[in-house]
Design a protein that fits this description.
Order of helices and strands: EHEHEHEHEHEEEHE
CATH superfamily: NAD(P)-binding Rossmann-like Domain
Strand content: 15-25%
CATH topology: Rossmann fold
Bound molecules: NADP nicotinamide-adenine-dinucleotide phosphate
CATH architecture: 3-Layer(aba) Sandwich
Distance between the termini: 44 Å
Mean pLDDT: 94
Structural class: alpha/beta
Number of domains: 1
Number of helices: 6
């Protein structure tokens, strides 16, 4: 009898931040479908539970019950990436449960639009907290275990705005340029460690992040139909993660044709 192939990420544990909707949801679903156990993090419990149910009820990966332990494919964690206390508690719980992730997808993000002169300093700071400082804390906490294991993946969802400047984008650009800089330094420092480090930088992608802007009816923005899909970004993440272990995908930049 022919066996189905074992999915590529079987045995891997992924923590996806901002998994309750948009790109994070698509990434979590793709990693779950590829056999990973997925830890979903965001602030909205109901939305996370819906994503977990989608992953759990999706046609499961081929498993050979005599060889692979039964596993719960998705776990919900309600938390705020800007809260170091709850993030540290989560990572300690995962470590105690021997469930520390070996894949981190730092995806949770804020996208405020305002001219620099109209940007409240509190919003500027919050954007850096969500898009840069919170992700730094999580990867900083995970790095020792990944280094000790000599394997693992740190994936950062950047943006077209981590290299290109648009007016009205000061807080977001500062956070995403910073995230790319952090990624590049980390990649240099991790060379030879077995731990991989990938930056995925999409152009405009049709997700709820655009809801406050209503791009279909606001001049100067691409209509939703001309944007990337969240699944396109998830495909890129999955592709990077499923390269041979000696291949590091440094950076993928996605735009619409
Ligand atoms: N959509 C685009 O055009 C685009 C393009 C390039 C890059 N990106 C980047 O892609 C990432 C995802 O964007 P998206 O479009 O999918 O946005 P989205 O639909 O608004 O989703 C954002 C996610 O982040 C979570 N989140 C926000 N603040 C959080 C916090 N403090 N703690 C924990 N989770 C938090 C949200 O969940 P809760 O509200 O439940 O916490 C949600 O799951 C972001 O980093 C964004 O900058 C997006």
């Amino acid at each position: 009898m022919a066996h189905q192939a074992i999915p590529a990420l079987t045995g891997r544990r992924a923590l996806v931040t901002g998994a309750s909707r948009g790109i994070g949801r698509a990434v979590a679903r793709a990693l779950g479908a590829a056999g990973a156990t997925v830890h979903l993090l965001a602030r909205s419990r109901t939305a996370l539970e819906a994503v977990a149910a989608e992953i759990s009820t999706a046609e499961g990966p081929a498993q050979m019950p005599d060889q692979l332990p039964a596993h719960v494919p998705a776990h919900v964690h309600v938390g705020d990436v800007t809260d170091p206390v709850s993030m540290n508690r989560l990572l300690e719980e995962l470590q105690t449960a021997k469930h520390l992730p070996d894949i981190l997808v730092s995806n949770a993000g804020l996208f405020p639009l305002a001219a620099v002169s109209d940007t409240d300093p509190a919003l500027f700071e919050q954007t850096l907290q969500v898009n840069l400082i919170g992700p730094f804390r999580v990867l900083h906490a995970l790095l020792p275990a990944l280094r000790a294991a000599g394997r693992g993946d740190i994936v950062t969802i950047g943006s077209v705005s981590d290299r290109h400047i648009f007016g009205g984008n000061g807080a977001y650009a500062a956070s995403k340029f910073g995230a790319r800089a952090l990624h590049e330094v980390l990649r240099t420092e991790l060379a030879g460690s077995g731990v991989r480090c990938t930056l995925i930088s999409p152009a405009a992608t049709d997700t709820p992040i655009w809801d406050p802007i209503d791009p279909d009816n606001t001049p100067g923005f691409p209509p939703r139909a001309a944007m990337l899909r969240a699944d396109d970004v998830a495909d890129a993440v999955l592709w990077a993660l499923t390269r041979p272990a000696h291949v590091n995908i440094d950076e993928l930049r996605l735009s619409r044709t």
